[in-house]
Amino acid sequence: MSSAAIDFARQNQPRFLEELKALLRIPSISTLPDHNADTRHAAEILAAEMKRIGLKNVRLIETTHGGQAGHPLVYGEWLHAVGKPTVLCYGHYDVQPPDPLDEWLTPPFEPTERNGNLYARGAVDDKGQMYMHLKALESLFESGKGKLPLNVRVILEGEEEVGGEGIAAFVREHPEELKADFALVSDTEMFAPDLPTLCVGLRGMIYTEIEVRGAKTDLHSGMYGGAAPNPFVALAQIIAGLKDREGKILIPGFYDDVEVPSAEEKAAWKRLPFDEEHYREKEVGSPVLTGEAGHSVLERTWARPTLDVHGMPGGFTGAGAKTVIPARATAKVSMRLVPGMTPKKSFAQYMSFVESLTPKGVTVEVRMIHSGDPIVVGTDNPYVTAAKGAMREVFGKETVFVRGGGSIPIVGDFERHLKIPTVMMGFGLPDDNLHAPNEKFHIANFYRGIESVIRMFERLGG
Amino acid sequence: MSSAAIDFARQNQPRFLEELKALLRIPSISTLPDHNADTRHAAEILAAEMKRIGLKNVRLIETTHGGQAGHPLVYGEWLHAVGKPTVLCYGHYDVQPPDPLDEWLTPPFEPTERNGNLYARGAVDDKGQMYMHLKALESLFESGKGKLPLNVRVILEGEEEVGGEGIAAFVREHPEELKADFALVSDTEMFAPDLPTLCVGLRGMIYTEIEVRGAKTDLHSGMYGGAAPNPFVALAQIIAGLKDREGKILIPGFYDDVEVPSAEEKAAWKRLPFDEEHYREKEVGSPVLTGEAGHSVLERTWARPTLDVHGMPGGFTGAGAKTVIPARATAKVSMRLVPGMTPKKSFAQYMSFVESLTPKGVTVEVRMIHSGDPIVVGTDNPYVTAAKGAMREVFGKETVFVRGGGSIPIVGDFERHLKIPTVMMGFGLPDDNLHAPNEKFHIANFYRGIESVIRMFERLGG
């Protein structure tokens, strides 16, 4: 089925891609204060583009948390499709830090095309996917002579990678300003290349720091080794106590509220084209996969809680040898939560267990850095039906339902405060290297994403 | 008893101190390649000073190891005291890295006097103590009209803090060039302020890195948590397996060859003025002391092997949150060895046990960075007698014999290849912050050290 908007989108593919590259050149790394100006610059560029394509009432919404200025939200709307549904398009313009830099084949903020992919930090997470929405809207405005087939609100945030407190507060405090029938989020991936996918569940998370302090100052390990506590050894003992060698988390009560997926959902997962050996070798690349016995890989990554350590700052990390017993050491530890669990209860269980695991001679402080609720969204609504139909046209295949192992806390906020369902229609691929060196976006999926959004919106407005 | 050399040393104290400050301003950090030029500069300054005071045949001796250029040795001699003993004066001009920089009250390479102390990296370890030897020799040359009471060789190294491979090779390959009757090393500390101390035993060490590799690249902990191995968790499990919560090392066979100190030596240690509570509160500053049950603090730090972790580089160590499962992580782990143990056997036991502790899903590589033998030196020789007599004159007290928890591998090399005993006569204090921020040297001890060396050499030549 042809459409003037689709034609416009196809004719303008090269320009759309160049615009995306320009956006990817801005190192909007939200967790690094040195990049605050870059992050704001990305917000301003997007606001200008939203105005240009025809959205109204475009503005930056400042955020604050803990008394400190955050990164702004970008808002725009077009609300003149009388009697038609309203979509809330969400995306984020901030990105993860690019380190380790020396593992990138081309620099993270110099977008580079190779083998049909666009390589850059943020290519798929989430600048590229967020930009699909804007380019679909531009195509619909152009072909519709300044009108859209449905009502649209767009909200973009710059703090997704640092916990999203700003947008969470805005949704909680101003739900009327985001009033819509459903939300559209493109920040997930397809289960396999060419397989249209909707994500219907996400894990939540708690991201923490455990700081251990021993001696009052760094000490020489020759002189004091045998009498002074070693904070890294203490952290190792704590971490080793949190999770056993089979991947089972040992925090008392941690699994108590875990909701087991339905037999039907588990059966559908078994039918997905999943090659565990390919996944192990090509995606993970480790000798064996790890995790809880008795659960499949998809269950372990979608429907089971996990615990990971991301880094252990402190002490001597340079080349060579320094014989120091550091006064303190920190571990960055996060847990993924699944439906049934809550960040508050899980954190309390965790903190109390960490304290009980702390050896004598050191003191421990456990800090929550950020958290997000796990969620499961419904599949029985017209928005999911429109999304499936749109992707059937674009891909020529039926859509599969999957869950995601990561967290998109805003989806829970939309559900809780706006009382609307979210359609998670993402176009990433499993090997897109999210949060890792050589992040990429398959360029064909950028274009298919734009067309899927166009067709979905035309169906809902038709 | 007065002496022209002592008079000269006393008159020149202010100049000696200024010269030491100039030496301390050179950041001769041997482990950091960026400071290679500084390290060489320190060697050249010392060679010039050795020539100026009257030593002969002064030269830099280049070192290489593993095909790479090392930091030079500095050599000088005066061998015209016919029939008198020959001393080999040893010291090192390299220093530890100064980090964490923000804990220094004044910058590490801007020597600053406060409360009778000189604060700088290397003040006591070992530039200040090494410089005592040169200033004692200068005083003896000046008062002796260009002659010394005994024969002297001076050898200084610039790699003590990185394993001392260069001097070890030189001693092994050219023992005839260092032929002497005994060695004098001032790189240890006094047991208490005003208590003259000779060190008669040192722990050895092995300094290692354990590198764990999991996935082939960094992965997103949301997408892969539950299936991908986590190298930090693996390291925590390994480290927690190496040492129990009571401080006992669990490596099979590790304690088999440990020589227990004699009942007489242990009894002498009990008579030392050691206040465990003061040590805990003022030196270590931790809630309790740690270490093996059933052994006193002095036994634990002098005569028991230990295991410490110095840092765990890898992963995300910045501020905030990054949800990465790092592809690899490293732990810097060292063990102190005591008489009876050998680095070779202990490393083999350790490596094999680390491998057995490695969980599935990751690969491990254990690297030896450097090592040193533990040693015990004799106390029944004329050099120790002369040192005791000299310090009795300077301090007005009898000398105590202690051991050191740290390592001075060269002392073992002198014993093995030159067949000579070493007198370890040091003037540091327990709170001098070796290898830590705010390293200092008590200025009075700098002067007392110079006088002790003068009087010791006059006794041996008298």
Q: Uncertain segments of chain A of ≥5 residues (pLDDT<50)?
A: none
- Main beta sheet of chain A: strand number and arrangement? 9 strands, mixed
Instruction: State the end-to-end distance of chain A.
Output: 14 Å
SSE class of chain A: alpha+beta
Question: And the CATH topology of the largest domain in chain A?
Answer: Aminopeptidase
Q: Show the largest interface.
A: A-B, 103 and 103 residues
Kindly report the oligomeric state of this protein.
Answer: homodimer
Helices, strands, pairings?
The structure is a homodimer of 462-residue chains.
Chain A: H1 4-11, H2 13-24, H3 36-53, E1 56-61, E2 64-65, E3 68-69, E4 73-78, E5 86-92, E6 112-114, E7 117-119, H4 123-143, E8 151-157, H5 165-173, E9 182-185, E10 197-202, E11 204-213, E12 219-220, H6 221-224, H7 231-242, H8 263-271, H9 276-284, H10 297-302, E13 306-315, E14 324-325, E15 328-337, H11 343-357, E16 363-372, E17 375-376, H12 382-395, E18 400-404, H13 409-418, E19 422-425, E20 440-442, H14 443-461
Parallel strand pairs in A: 5-8, 5-9, 9-19, 10-18
Antiparallel strand pairs in A: 1-4, 2-3, 4-8, 6-7, 7-20, 10-17, 10-19, 11-15, 11-16, 12-14, 13-15
Explain what the structure shows.
Two copies of one chain form a homodimer. With 462 residues, chain A is α+β, with helices and mostly antiparallel strands. The first copy, chain A, folds into two domains: 287 residues, 3-Layer(aba) Sandwich (Aminopeptidase); 127 residues, Alpha-Beta Plaits, CATH 3.30.70.360. The first copy, chain A, is 36% helix and 23% strand. Chain A contains 14 helices and 20 strands. In chain A, the strands form five sheets. In chain A, strands 1, 4, 5, 8, 9, 10, 17, 18 and 19 form a nine-stranded mixed beta sheet that branches. A four-stranded antiparallel beta sheet of chain A has the order 13-15-11-16. The two termini of chain A are 14 Å apart. At the A-B interface, strand 12, helix 6, helix 7, helix 9 and helix 10 of A face strand 12, helix 6, helix 7, helix 9 and helix 10 of B.
